[in-house]
Amino acid sequence: MLENALTFSHSLLKNTINQGDLVIDATAGNGHDTLFLAKLVGPEGRVLAFDIQQQAIDNTQTLLSEHNILNTSVIHDGHQHLNKYLSENTLINGAIFNLGYLPGADKKIITNKDSTLAAIKTILPKLANHGLVVLVVYYGHPGGQTELSALLDSVTQLPQQKYAVLQYQFINQVNQPPLVLAIQKK
Ligand SMILES: C[S@@+](CC[C@H](N)C(=O)[O-])C[C@H]1O[C@@H](n2cnc3c(N)ncnc32)[C@H](O)[C@@H]1O
Fold first, then answer.
1. What is the pLDDT of residues 2-17, one digit of tens each?
2. Whose CA is nearest to atom 27 of ligand 1?
3. Which residues contact 176 (CB under 8 A, 6 or more apart)?
4. Nearest in space to 23 (alpha carbons), one of 80, 82, 76, 67
5. Contact at 8 Å (CB) between 169 and 129?
């Protein structure tokens, strides 16, 4: 069967990320993507996982310790401040954004276009060759469509000589199924 947005996002990362890489989980949430990335890069690699909610930080840390993960820094800060946690010449091999609200928490606390675009703008110049930014965009909630429109406006303008930009979505499903955007540095 065709992969859903989440499994497709993981397949893209699996095909790109290697052991020893530096990767970003821009929206840690309950930590599922963080754990996935931590396993992909292995003990020699490094994951920086960001979230603005204490509940997300706690849930992610709990999940990681249950799996004895030691290569990850879980950072209670917005992804738009990513630069504070990286030295100037550090290259990023991959990043994932899972946009929307934290499942099981306050649905009014959502990712928003300004911080999401700011984080992407920070990551792109630091991407290694063939490095990949994957965004899984949930947009069925209030505010979601605004973020999606801003994102599409922005990523469609990235120069094709420098980046390959992909959109993946089921187009015959009800209830605004999530879509995947992926940006790869050429
Ligand atoms: C859809 S959830 C992420 C789910 C997560 N990937 C998982 O596997 O459980 C979106 C998360 O983004 C977080 N968030 C919202 N704005 C943020 C920002 N500026 N920086 C970092 N995280 C943010 C929310 O607190 C929420 O936990």
1. 999 999 999 999 999 9
2. 29
3. 139, 140, 144
4. 82
5. no
Distance (Å) from CA 26 to ligand 1 centroid: 7
Alpha-carbon distance values, 56 to 29, 32, 34, 63, 77 (Å):
5, 11, 11, 11, 11
| Local structure of residue 106 (DSSP, 8 states) | -
CA of 118 to the centre of ligand 1 (A): 15
Cβ of 76 closer than 6 Å to ligand 1, yes or no, is: no
For ligand 1, say whether the CB of 122 is within 6 Å of any of its atoms: no
Tell whether domain 5-185 is in CATH 3.40.50.1260.
no
**Are β-strands 92-99 and 127-137 bridged in parallel, bridged antiparallel, or unpaired?**
parallel
| Ligand 1 atom nearest to CA at 79 | 20
Mean pLDDT of the chain: 97
pLDDT digits (tens, 9 = 90+) for 23-55: 999 999 999 999 999 999 999 999 999 999 999
Can you list the alpha helix ranges (DSSP code H) found in 26-82?
32-41, 54-66
Q: Would you state the structure tokens that stand for residue 180, as one six-digit string?
A: 């995947």
Q: Domain residues of the chain, as ranges?
A: 5-185
Eight-class DSSP state of 83: G
Q: Cα(161) to centroid of ligand 1, in Å? A: 31
